[in-house]
Design goal:
Chain lengths: ~160, ~130
């Protein structure tokens, strides 16, 4: 399932439910309704993914966010679902845990990537939610894997 | 559905009534009496066992709840929660649920915002 826009745009009043949360809510409801179908088609039914796809020259806060599960078979039902093929590439995988998760994730781009022999292969970040390690976002024991698509940096000299 | 201004005016008119209701449920014993009556009517003796109160204290609390129309005496020694009392308890429970959900959403929103910002504001040297 997909959302395009600014996922954390400011709401009026006290409505602070953001668009990513709403997307997950819809996804979860559909998964519950179609549990047997998903069990059959998902290669890892206990793992869900959230892919953020932006653009290198992007100036606004609007971009694509996909949530879904991994499958080897193109599927188009339930009707809200669609099949998206992700590019074959290497991923650097980092595990964030607890309340420092956003800071840990930020360091990937501010510390690890600039000091590595790699650069971003695609303007994309995938978050992997494994039900055995992730409960709720504000749970101190919850873990999320951040998957950064990488390629070797071209010679700069 | 009332808008914010109508809601404020309405609450101003009801301030005395609401203060009395608030005062009425402000003690744990009276709250226990009301929750004890939510599933079914109870006798004085049953309420005495539920609350662990002495006879005189229980009588005083029951009288207070009757005066604010949260509870009524059906017949000899049998007490029942009123429609108003029942709805008040339901609304309070919903309020607590909604507040918890709001706080959870607020925390999650902040975490998502920070993750999103880190990704969007990354500087990549291709």
């Amino acid at each position: 399932m997909v959302y395009y826009g600014n996922p954390v745009h400011t709401h009026e009043g006290w409505d602070i439910q953001n668009e990513i949360g709403k997307l997950w809510k819809r996804f979860t409801e559909i998964c519950i309704k179609n549990a047997k179908y998903i069990e059959k088609h998902a290669t890892e039914p206990h793992i869900a993914y959230e892919a953020h796809i932006a653009y290198p020259d992007q100036e606004d806060q609007e971009y694509h966010i996909f949530v879904g599960f991994k499958t080897d078979t193109p599927i188009s039902t339930p009707i809200e679902f669609f099949y998206k093929e992700m590019p074959a590439t290497r991923y650097a995988v980092f595990t964030g845990k607890g309340k420092d998760m956003p800071a840990q994730m930020g360091k990937i781009y501010t510390e690890w990537l600039p000091n590595s022999p790699y650069t971003e292969a695609y303007p994309m970040l995938i978050q992997r939610y494994d039900q055995t390690r992730f409960k709720e976002l504000d749970d101190p024991e919850s873990e999320i894997d951040f998957m950064v698509p990488i390629k070797e940096r071209e010679n700069e000299g | 559905m009332k808008d914010k201004r109508e809601r404020i005016e309405s609450l101003k008119r009801l301030s005395t009534t609401l203060s009395n209701i608030g005062q009425s449920i402000s003690t744990e014993s009276r709250f226990t009496i009301l929750t004890g009556l939510m599933d079914d009517q109870k006798s004085f003796q049953q309420l005495k066992e539920i609350t662990g109160l002495k006879k005189s204290a229980l009588s005083s609390h029951l009288k207070n709840l009757e005066e604010t129309e949260l509870l009524e005496r059906k017949h000899h020694g049998i007490y029942s929660i009123t429609y108003q009392g029942y709805q008040l308890m339901i609304k309070l429970d919903e309020l607590i649920d909604e507040t918890r959900e709001y706080e959870t959403n607020k925390k999650e929103n902040e975490i998502r915002r920070r993750i999103t910002d880190s990704f969007l504001h990354r500087r990549i040297n291709y």
